[in-house]
Amino acid sequence: MRYLVSVIDDKSDPGSTDRRPAISAFNERLIAEGYWVFSGGLADTDAATVVDNRGEQAVFSDGPFVESKEYLAGVWVWEAPDLDVALKLAAEASKVCDRKIEVRPFL
Amino acid sequence: MSDVEEAVTRAHQGEWARVVAALTRRFGDLDIAEEAAAEAFATAVERWPADGTPPNPGAWLTTTANRKAIDRIRRENKRDDKHKEAQMTYDGPPEPVGAIDDDRLRLIFTCCHPALAMQTRVALTLRMVGGLTVPEIARAFLVAETALERRITRAKAKIKAARIPYRVPSAEDLPARVSGVLAVLYLVFNEGYLATGPDTDPLRHDLTAEAIRLTRLIRALMPGDGEVAGLLALMLLTDARRTARISAGGELVPLDEQDRGAWDTGLIAEGHGLVRERLAAAAAGVAPGRYQILAAINAVHTSARDIRDTDWSQVLALYDQLARLDPSPIIALNRSIAVAELDGPRVALAAVDRLEDELAGYHAYHATRADLLRRQGHSRQSRAAYDRAIELAGNTAETAYLTRRRDQLR
């Protein structure tokens, strides 16, 4: 079962910025234990572009599709047998990243 | 009620959760299990009056429900992808946690999973484990049936899509998960004990009885768990006072004014027995949790034949123990009532006033202040506090009581 694991940061109350070494170590463990499928941190939401080509011509808009205080700062994809396993790892991930984590199953 | 009707009711109370749980394990799908169980019971209502009650109603219901489930899967042509559909994990031979291995426990833990919202857990538990119908649950919690139906449907979909496992949690997760289950049952009980709706009965015996029934079930499944025993004792000792809590005029009767002769001695004896069992465990070094301490406080109250015989110093000692475990303002507020008995209303009021920031929106905070001010002869301030408490109280019997107390002030 695959889960999209989102790291959520808050613009008005951001998590600490020194988490990289801890995240690397945590990733090593995810890989060793067979949970890791993919991971990546994301550039600031200002760097996002939204494309809408449902009409006559493609419209490009600067910035994210939704402006909010909380935003997606990074993602993982994990392979886990069930939600309990994923939630336990997510609880660790939240400490490691010093941020909130959302766990969402793939279809 | 005819014999057959009684047999169906008994079977429903005794077997519903067992049937749903067994089907969930077999078909890996709460939806199929719930629907097939409901159909099996409907068939029983139709058939038993004519054919007589089967010698083993539980087995009859399980077999019938199994057939109904298979029919449905065939109908929907799910034979081939049934296993793909079945998202609930069932880990082959179950790992027994201690000596417990029961489908119903798996069902309870799934319905009370921490990934589900509290109200969802309550609705799902009452439906899947308690066997209450959607209209019954909707009435109990004053929500629209359609909204509740949606909530339950969404929950079942989440359990499936996110793969919430169908199993008893591992030993290391068990205490946290049990406390999640107990929180659900306590919430159901409290809603019955002090119903919040302005248009409902002040006491909802259907809800308190259901909460007690489900807690008894968990107690039977987990006899070694101290907090389960504590919660059951707390419910029994509270429910024992039921008939004395509401006056003939529909007013809430506080503990100090209750007719103690009207208390249910059978429930009190059972509750005291459970508390004694946990005291023995505590003496052997097992630290009691909050439900056990709350039960012990209620045991002190129900041991006194007269309010004047109440051992307030023991009540206070227990509240101190509870406050160390859970430093919540509500516990501090209840503790102040014992303080008032031991050190007088002035000392207690000083303690209560310190809670204003946290409890300004809670009716019991203002009701407690009103009473402590009244006892010191501060009528004007007491009246203002009663006014605020009446504004915030949701329970009809409590509003009636507070209004009378306010109107007695000079």
Give an overview in words:
The complex is a heterodimer of chains A (107) and B (410). Chain A is α+β, with helices and mostly antiparallel strands. Chain A has one domain (2-45, 72-105): Dimeric alpha+beta barrel (Alpha-Beta Plaits). Helix content of chain A is 26%, strand content 36%. Chain A has helices spanning 20-32, 83-97; strands spanning 2-10, 36-41, 49-52, 59-62, 70-79, 100-105. In chain A, the strands form two sheets. A four-stranded antiparallel sheet of chain A has the order 2-5-1-6, covered by helices on one side. In chain A, strands 3-4 form a two-stranded antiparallel ribbon. The longest helix of chain A has 15 residues, at 83-97. By secondary structure, chain B is mostly helical. Among the domains of chain B are: 4-77, no CATH class; 223-310; 340-409, Serine Threonine Protein Phosphatase 5, Tetratricopeptide repeat (Alpha Horseshoe), CATH 1.25.40. Chain B is built from 21 helices and no strands. In chain B, helix 1 (3-27) packs across helix 3 and helix 6 crosses helix 9 (174-193). In chain B, 42% of the residues are buried. Classes of the chains: A alpha+beta (107), B mainly alpha (410). The A-B interface holds A 1, 3, 81-84, 87, 103-105, 107 and B 89, 113-115, 161-165, 169, 173. Chain B: Residues 18-78 form the RNA polymerase sigma-70 region domain. Chain B: GO terms for molecular function: DNA binding; sigma factor activity. Chain B: Pfam families: DUF6596, Sigma70_r2, Sigma70_r4_2. Chain B: This is RNA polymerase sigma-70 factor (ECF subfamily). Chain B: Keywords: Sigma factor, Transcription, Transcription regulation.
Gist?
The complex is a heterodimer of chains A (107) and B (410). Chain A is an alpha+beta fold.
Could you give me the name of the CATH homologous superfamily of chain A? Dimeric alpha+beta barrel
Largest sheet of chain B: none
Number of strands of chain A: 6
Helix content of chain A: 25-40%
Shape-level CATH architecture of chain A: 2-Layer Sandwich
What does the oligomeric state look like here?
heterodimer
Span between N and C termini of chain A?
9 Å
Task: Average the pLDDT over all residues of chain B and give the rounded result.
Answer: 89
Given the helix and strand composition of chain B, which structural class is it? mainly alpha
Structural class of chain A: alpha+beta
One letter per element, helices H and strands E, the order of chain B comes to HHHHHHHHHHHHHHHHHHHHH
Mean pLDDT of chain A: 95
In order across it, which strands form the biggest sheet of chain A?
2-5-1-6
Biggest interface pair, residues each? Answer: A-B, 11 and 11 residues
Beta strand % of chain B: under 5%
Number of helices of chain A: 2
Tell me the radius of gyration of chain B: 24 Å
Family (chain B): Belongs to the sigma-70 factor family. ECF subfamily.
Domain DUF6596 (chain B): 177-277
Protein name (chain B): RNA polymerase sigma-70 factor (ECF subfamily)
Organism (chain B): Sphaerisporangium krabiense
